Task: structure prediction
Amino acid sequence: MTDTGTPGPIRADHVLCVSPSSRNLSVSIIHAPVATALDIGVGGVQAMHLSTHADQVTGIDLSTRALRFAATTAALNKLDWELLYGDMVEPVAASTSW
Result:
């Protein structure tokens, strides 16, 4: 079953949409103002929530489809996110800002 409740297999390049799962995750985010926030497994939903209290949002994903979804979401909302292809924190591991 998919995250939207429809029966069937989930595509290999599935990107989580707004759903009960993404809403549950969004309420677990600490909503204190921060300079930077990191969204691992970006699709755009959580990055939108992070944008409400982070000066800069960085999203990382192994899925180019998820990165395209996130880029589209950012553009439609006039937001400037840093979107990186990679596994977990590997793309930012050498950064001194983290």
